[in-house]
Protein: YpmS family protein
Organism: Bacillus lumedeiriae
Amino acid sequence: MKKGWKLAFLGLLALNGIIVLLLAIGLFSPIQDETLPKVDAQEEAVEFQVKSNKEDLNKVIKMFVEKEKAKSFVDYNVYLRDQVELYGDVAVFSERIDYKLTFEPEALKNGNVVLRQKGIKVGKINLPVSYVLKAARDAYQFPDWVKIMPNDEMIYLSLDKMELKSNLKVRADRIDLKKDDIRFTLQLPVDQD
C-alpha cells in the first residue's frame, strides 16, 4: 500500500514538473514578429473625404468586432476614448482573468494605422507587454488586415487590405482622439474599360 502511494505521489509530482516546464518554455521562448505588410499600388479611384468622431467610429468598430468574435471562443471589445482601449479576458486554468490594453493611434502616410501600446493591466499582475500581445495574437482570430507585432509593442492595421463592399478602400488621414478629429479618405475604384 505504501509503495503504491509513493508511486502515485511521484507521478503527480512529475506531472506538475512537466506542466511548469511547458509554461516556462512558452513564456521564455522568443516571440516571432511578422514583417510590416507592403502597401499595394493604388488603382484609379474617386476619392471622398470623410470626417468622423469617436462615437460614430465606435459603432463601426463594434460591428466589425462582433462579426469577428462570432468566429472566436473569446470575448473582447474595442473602444475609442482618448486612446484606443482593448478589453477582454483570458482563461487561466479554471479562472477568467480580465485585461485592458491601451494604445495611441497614428495615421501613417500610406493610409494605414499603427496602434502603439501605451498601458496594460492584467488582473492585478504586471506582465511584459510583448507576452500579452503574443498571447492575444495566438488566442484570437483577427482579420488578415490586423497584424499584432509583440516585439514592437504595436498593432498594425492594413486598411488598404480591409475588404469592404463595392471594392471600397479606406485611407486614414488623421486620428486625434483627444480632439475627436478623425479623418479618412474613401476610395472607390473606377473601371477604365
